[in-house]
Amino acid sequence: MRIIGLSDANILGIHSMALIAASGLDGISVHRIAELTKCSQNHLTKVVEIMAKANLIHATRGPSGGFHLNRASKDILLIDIYEAISGKVEEDNLCYEHPNSRIRLNFFNKICFDLSLRYLNYLKNTTLADIQPKAEELLEKHNNK
Amino acid sequence: MTKILAISEANAISFHAMALIAISEISINTNDIAEISGASKHHTAKVLQRLVKHGLLGSIRGPSGGFYLKKMANKILLIEILEALEGEIKINDCPIDNPVCPFGSCLMGGICSEIGTNLLNYLKSHTLSDLIVNIDSNQNILNRVKNHENYRIK
Predict the structure, then answer these.
(1) Do B86 and A8 touch (CB under 8 A)?
(2) What pTM, to 2 d.p., does this model score?
(3) What is the separation, in whole angstroms, between the first and last Cα of chain A?
(4) Which residue in the set B89, B105, B111 is minimally distant from A122, CB to CB?
């Protein structure tokens, strides 16, 4: 099980965007992303729609249609993808706190803060271009099959 | 605004409940725990039942009844509290839960697995005593619990 909430939607969003970046001018369909990542097509469709709504990608229609990036992959940070799906992240609100609780478990908050900050820094300092090569390798491998 | 690290409602209740029971000098009941932790009584009762079933808590019936720790707080690992509700915790290396990464090696450089492992190691190496070292309460709720002054929140 996943003990912490790095949500499926966020992870799928990052993986999908890497494949869209890797597909370049050809574009890539949700069906193909689902095939390559072995993830649910329905879930991916929702995630990709959110990306399009956030103006990170656009779709082209037709038999050879698919999704394309709206700007260069080096100009898209992973935090842009994360925030398109989950909303704005603020560093002073990273602690774990139960919304209605009248006590604060400070000890637990500390570890949640540290780990959240580690993830946040990764998202803020990594561009889509940084993770794109692995997605390109995957596409190339499958195109040669 | 979003939180990066989300913990399930049930797990949040269990950590709060165990902390409250650990600092209380009297046996504390479901209503009190639900009220302080801000959770529903029904959900709190279910979580407490699981903690009793796993031998972490004992319960006393009756009007002055409630829950007590079955072991010393420094003998209860935080992972035991989590696993009482979730079963054995294993970290999957793949953030999209594939048995074998379709990308060959993790697209995200293994960060999800790293964070999960760090949290797991932390829960395995700290006890309930650590959790209750530094609890904040703006309303002196905990002092009332500790001092046993006809404690009941209204």
Answers:
(1) no
(2) 0.81
(3) 33
(4) B111
A37 vs B134: CB contact, 8 Å cut-off? no
Q: What ipTM, to 2 d.p.?
A: 0.82
Chain B: residue whose CA lies nearest to A97? B12
Q: Are A95 and A113 in contact (CB under 8 A)?
A: yes
B64 three-class SS: coil
Under an 8 A CB cutoff, do A37 and B102 touch? yes
pLDDT (tens digit per residue) in B11-62: 888 998 999 899 887 778 898 888 888 889 999 999 999 999 999 999 988 8
Count of C-beta atoms within a 10 Å radius of residue A143: 8
Q: Which of A89, A103, A107 sits opposite B142 (nearest CB)?
A: A103
Q: Are A91 and A72 in contact (CB under 8 A)?
A: no
Check: CB of residue A102 under 8 Å from CB of residue B38: yes
Cα nearest neighbour of B5 on chain A? A5
Asked if A17 contacts A9 with a C-beta cutoff of 8 angstroms, the reply is no
List beta partners, residue B57. B69
Task: Say if the Cβ atoms of B90 and A6 lie within 8 Å.
Answer: no
Q: What angle do CA B1, B2, B5 make, to 5 degrees?
A: 155
Q: What's the length of chain A?
A: 145
